[in-house]
Fold these 2 entries.
Entry 1:
Amino acid sequence: MTQLPDDFSVGTFQNLLDEGKFLGVSCKSCEQVFVPPRTVCTNCQQTQMTWKELSGRAVLAGFTSIYVASSTMIKRGYGRDNPYLTGIVTLEEGPRIPARLIGLDPKQPEKIAIGTRLEIIFFTEQEDELSKIVLAFKPATS
């Protein structure tokens, strides 16, 4: 892996996502993993962190279909007639994070199972002239 910055910030995390890299940080003392990164371990309060490449594999811990969208999501075409899914996923490395869910039908939540194996997907969202990579998960293919 190339040299990574010592800046364990959300901004650096987003920059790495923009490069197609999914990393968290690991405490050098107790090995607790955090996503997004932080500078202090909430487990042992140590400040010695290191970047950790993550597998991108997860399981679905919870989800919701969103029909009443925020103004940002309405601009992207979501709303009552076109809901989207967001959920909590448990990464293979341990942390639980919120993420968009892709490849599942938000209009049929009864067909979505907690515990579904997922894999990471990066996609670009455009907002005005700005674009950013968004972290999402889809059903695993293997």
Entry 2:
Amino acid sequence: MDILHLIKSANLLLGTGVVTSSVYLYVTQNAKIPLLISLAIVIAGPIEDLLTNYVEESPSLSPNDKKHYTDFIDQSTSLAFLALLGLAVLCTVD
């Protein structure tokens, strides 16, 4: 097993654990902060990967268009990630 595969597997396992724990905490304790953090992780991880792969595999887009759209996806998901983390921080204020 090469190091890249090991890191990808660790990311998947850790992300799944965080999201599962967050959903459990929301259902059992109505804890919203972990849920916001999990949503940020899902957007910046698998959703970004899915959208990027869709653009990169599209035969109808030129290389310049692919670059434009992947940059747009990267910046948009980063913005959503930071907005959700900001909301999580604001939820800690009494």
